């Protein structure tokens, strides 16, 4: 795998906004022109950003795909054909992927929404199918498997319902290992990690006495002396309630403001409302996802860091014979794809039906194809394991 020039994660929102302004092509510019990076990166600063830029960014992160002719003159079908040559289907290239994994321990990382479950209007109804659950369960029998998601840990565990997995919730800020770990190396550590713990009262407010007991004295002091007691989630609920269709989801270390059911005409008003809350919290930042605005701590921690942390915890930190496979659909998954590219190890698989610039190596079109890939992985591994058990 070769190293490439990659787009900084924080720049992606800016770049897609720039792409939306500059062209209606479904392809994001790659690498981004320097002028775009300079201009739009500065507008990512939340306090200074223009509403119009954010609305463009919201549109760019949630493009409407039609079979129209793209701005660069090629029909969308042709653009897709060119794109799939660059990011071939992981199903078509299955044999090739497996031969690259020979002698290596595969470690699976799976995003949840849009990867294991289809995108639906109501975030509380994003269930995965029983067939998908069975596929994930079987994969976890043979390979260490982690779910890496923007959702809060409790909710994703509830959706997936498998106790044998590793979970990294809140975009990797809430990591938990299985009760009885399998596949770990001798030097593996127990997995329980919350790098943004100090932000909890700010996002969620002081919810319980056990939460109070778990914060350190300095954090407690700053809480008690704070004049505007921080409860971002509640403030967002309150501030956005006049926008029909807006939904605020508490993801523990992050908050999602959904606009999938908000009329496009009201997107400007919604971003104003969100912005009016965030002005009070310079330690929080905003990134757009799939018809969602994600509010999260400014710490340098993302799904890519969570992947590295989990590899280390599993005892694979400096291993040459490990092959991490990360499957995801969203721009937050790009941080993990980038880590794999930079390590020159493992591979990223982007779930998308449409051309998208990405740091992944392969693609799959939708969750049903993800399931097919997982099933094939198990079918490929099972005979080897049977043969070994007879020796
Ligand atoms: O990291 P992920 O597992 O992909 O989570 C990212 C966000 O996913 C969810 O929102 C997305 O899926 C919803 C259900 O299909 C859909 O209604 C929404 O428009 C999508 O953005 C989740 O609700 C968010 O909290 C996650 O941050």
Automatic annotation (TrEMBL):
Keywords: Hydrolase. It catalyses: alpha,alpha-trehalose 6-phosphate + H2O = alpha,alpha-trehalose + phosphate. Transmembrane segments: none annotated. Its cofactor is a divalent metal cation. InterPro entries: HAD-like_sf, HAD_sf, OTSB-like, Trehalose_PPase. This is Trehalose 6-phosphate phosphatase. It holds the Pfam family Trehalose_PPase. Its EC number is 3.1.3.12. Belongs to the trehalose phosphatase family. GO terms for molecular function: trehalose-phosphatase activity. NCBIfam families: T6PP. Pathway: Glycan biosynthesis; trehalose biosynthesis. GO terms for biological process: trehalose biosynthetic process.
